[in-house]
Amino acid sequence: MAAKGAHITQNIEVRPSIFEVVAADSLNATFYPALKRVANFLASIKPATFGPLLRYYDEVFLVFNWAVQSYYLRYKGGSLSEVFYGLTRTSLRTNRFDQNGQRWSLALLVVAPYLYRKLEAKITQWKEDYENGRVISPEKVRLTQIVPYLKACFECVRLVHYVSYLAGAVPTHSPVLRALNLSLTYQQEEEQSWTFQELLSGRVEPAKLLSSALLRSLELSAFFLQFIEWWQNEANMGDLAKLPTPDAPPGDLNGEKYRGKCPLCLQRWEIATAVSVSGYVYCYRCIVAHLQKESKCPVTGYPASIGDLIRVFDGDDD
Predict the structure, then answer these.
(1) What are the pLDDT digits (tens) for 247-269?
(2) SS3 sequence, the chain?
């Protein structure tokens, strides 16, 4: 009786708490990096076999995520992470989750993150090319400057939605769900489709049993991936010395151009001195005279002062 009473009490409140909806969002964001970590591990063990998996990981994850999320949206009424927390999507107008809502939800859950990751990779590449002196179009330069601000604006809007949802001012916590005119609510309890007695007597269809086992394994895998993500974060926070050493930044075209000589006088260095903000090496007299006139690195244009100079001791120094 107590369990039944608790079940009734849960269904009276159809509005999930802010902790549940944020946890569902967090779990959904965990799938991509967690599975990529698995792909990295497999590729390190057998590069010839699993190398293509890592090389085309974005596309493989796109297909896998599409298959899983489309099933859950169609038959469970929500994404995998939302169903894991007992939530489902519903229209603010009709209280139903129709096919149009399913299609838009699938596009924003699967396709939009894939396109954004591709755009982010391109922007990172364009930014590195620009900083290394390579020629890129002005449109790409503007895009590298605008996208971070757009991302910050979206995060601010999402934070405002969180606070408004917590205060009860809006029906949904996410600006994406609000744009789709959807909200999250608790799933209705489903009756068990088969019993263990029916299973032992062979009266359960194999397809139904396989489907149920697959769904349970996916939900348990979601919990396992979230645990692995939490465990690794805790390990990294506990001992920063265990973080892998990053690769050295790549050189640029000017580095080859001024190899072994001062970029100002174009002669062999006299008292070699590096500008710490850029790494370029000059003659001490040349760079001091330049910084007294202009407070920036002559090659990169980065802001610099005499306090940023570091003496370099090479093989010719006594």
Answers:
(1) 777 767 777 788 888 999 999 98
(2) CHHHHHHHHHHHCCCCCHHHHHHHHHHHHHHHHHHHHHHHHHHHHCHHHHHHHHHCHHHHHHHHHHHHHHHHHHHCCCCHHHHHCCEEEEECCCCCCCHHHHHHHHHHHHHHHHHHHHHHHHHHHHHHHHHCCCCCCHHHHHHHHHHHHHHHHHHHHHHHHHHHHHHCCCCCCCHHHHHCCEEEEECCCCCCCCCHHHHHHCCCCHHHHHHHHHHHHHHHHHHHHHHHHHHHHHHHHHCHHHCCCCCCCCCCHHHHHCCCCCCCCCCCCCCEEEECCCCCEEEHHHHHHHHHHCCECCCCCCECCHHHEEECCCCCCC
Please state, for a pLDDT cut of 70, what percent of the chain lies above it: 75
User: Minimal CA–CA distance to 252: which of 133, 122, 124, 137?
Assistant: 133
pLDDT tens per residue, range 295-307: 889 888 888 888 8
Find the mean pLDDT for residues 8-32. 75
pLDDT of 242 higher than 60: no
At a CB cut-off of 8 Å and minimum separation 6, what does 70 contact? 102, 106, 110
Q: What sign results for the dihedral spanned by CA atoms 192, 80, 62, 35?
A: negative
Contact (Cβ atoms closer than 8 angstroms) between residue 19 and residue 214: no
> Cβ-count burial of 63 within 10 angstroms (0-12 exposed, 13-18 middle, 19+ buried)?
exposed
> Using CB atoms within 10 A of its CB, is residue 175 exposed (0-12), middle (13-18) or buried (19+)?
middle
C-alpha Rg value of the chain to the nearest Å: 28
Residue 215's pLDDT is what?
55
